[in-house]
Amino acid sequence: MGIEFSGVSKTYPDGTEAVAEFSCSVPSHRTLALVGTSGSGKTTLMRMVNRMIDPTTGTVLIDGSDVRDLDKVALRRSIGYVPQAGGLLPHRKVIDNVTTVPVLCGTPKAQARADALELLAKVGLDPSLAKRYPGQLSGGQQQRVAVARALAADPNILLMDEPFGAVDPIVRRDLQDQLLALQSELGKTIVLVTHDIDEAFRLGDQVIILRTGGIIAQSGSPQEIVAAPANDFVRDFIGADRAERTLRTVDLDGRQVVVDGDDRPVGVLS
Amino acid sequence: MTWFELNQDLVWDLLGRHARLAIPAVLISVVIAIVLGRIAWRWPRVGSVVLGISSLLYSVPALPLLIVIPVILSVPLRSETNLVIALSVYGTALLAGTAADAFRSVDIRVREAAEAMGHSPTGIFWRVDLPLSLPVLLSGIRVVAVSTVSLVTIGALVGISSLGSLLTDGFQRNIREEVAIGVVGTMLLAMALDLLIVALGAVLTPWQQRTKAGATT
Ligand SMILES: Nc1ncnc2c1ncn2[C@@H]1O[C@H](COP(=O)(O)OP(=O)(O)OP(=O)(O)O)[C@@H](O)[C@H]1O
Ligand SMILES: [Mg+2]
Fold first, then answer.
1. CA A127, CA A3: separation in Å to the nearest integer?
2. Which of A55, A264, B65, B83 has the maximal Cβ count within 10 Å?
3. Which ligand is the nearest neighbour of the Cα of A212?
4. How far apart are CA A266 and CA A250, in angstroms?
């Protein structure tokens, strides 16, 4: 059943129309990637799921129930949340950051700590880092902790707001791979916000490209969007005209070599 | 024989009284200032009125305040309670603005992430806002502690004993050494309290010490 946005709009008190009449559904165990330019309402939409923001009109349903009928605090504890860089509790050790939600929910501390150590290993962190404070970690390590923390109470839903936006491209790639591996094992329902179209295509089963005002420019699988950009905005946004998106094959000694628009080789057809 | 050697017991007794007047006043100031600072942080309009009134109170001279408080609250003029209340008024007035700043100093991204994880509003206060505002708060508390210790001496003017009594008595009887011991004793007490707060701060904010040191083990 998953998450369903049904005709949601959000107008902030100052009159900003962040989202207008947005509808979409995210099936369980799938990843929705919301991409768009800055200020297109991505964060606003994502925060409606855990009621950090209530929509002005419309409803958000989780497995068929309106989130408005659920207790805010209980709802948030049941949903994993990976904030942007800098969202860890700086005054709590790594291990205590990871155990935050289980402890809030009443899991015995010893149990929560044992689970947390396992999770840290799972996200690719050495358990010896558990006793450090977040300020003593690199940006990439901090975001791994943030992912472990979000998974600690084994939620069905994971919300991620530009989780890897502040790390360098190599580490970002690494974190994306890690997330893909985790997701194939855990099968969470994920809403991921990013402004990196390549990240959206790599991680999203379904991608929604938003334009200012929270209006859907195009929605579909990465393949569908690349194959048929719905309009100039999308074409421009995904860089459809960029040389590296226009691949073709050339025949070389009987092998089909794929080259991009600048004739640079990118691979071989098997 | 110096004056000090003859009057040691008196000096130690007055030092004890001085500390017993200053410390409760500082503690009361901290608690009330945190409450007012929180209100000022949460509701800025109410806050600017509250902070305005408190800085007005700070400008009331000490002696009249010591005479007005007994009239309003019907506590005896010469009682320690009277002085502790007066000191708490000044301490609170001095600290409330800093407390509001301290809450503003908490990284909004951290608070929002904590909220999104499912901390209740009270949980946010105790587990996030209060600990993270400590560094700024402690710098304000140090100022209040030092100023309170020196203000305690005013009480001697209405007959509330402290190291300040050495000043009034020494001036009256023209014993220079007694005055000097009153001044130095007050300063040493202020410094001791300041050091205590610094040490307490280091214990309460271990993440700051370790991150600053850049330790990577
Ligand atoms: N609390 C608020 N009050 C008023 N306007 C807001 C508020 N939060 C967001 N907005 C506005 O709503 C619009 C959408 O904001 P939102 O944060 O959802 O965008 P975003 O797509 O996440 O952008 P970014 O990529 O920069 O994070 C923007 O125009 C923003 O200025
Ligand atoms: Mg955003």
1. 34
2. B83
3. 1
4. 11
- CA dist list (Å): A153 to A133, A158, A216, B83, B108: 21, 11, 33, 53, 24
Question: Within 10 A of A232 (CB to CB), how many other CB atoms are there?
Answer: 10
DSSP per position, B20-72: HHHHHHHHHHHHHHHHHHHHHHHSHHHHHHHHHHHHHHHTS-HHHHHHHHHHH
Average pLDDT over residues B145-155: 97
ipTM: 0.87
Q: Compute the mean pLDDT over every residue in chain A, rounded to the nearest whole number.
A: 93
Task: Enter the DSSP assignment of A50.
Answer: T
B104 touches chain A (CB under 8 A): no
What does the CA dihedral B10, B16, B20, B21 come to, rounded to 10 degrees? Answer: 40
CATH class of the structural domain A3-243: alpha beta
Domain regions of chain A by residue span: 3-243, 244-270
Q: Do A52 and B112 touch (CB under 8 A)?
A: yes
Residue for token digits 């358990």?
A: A127
The residue to which tokens 């094959």 are assigned: A249
Total-model pTM: 0.87
Ligand nearest to the CA of A36: 1
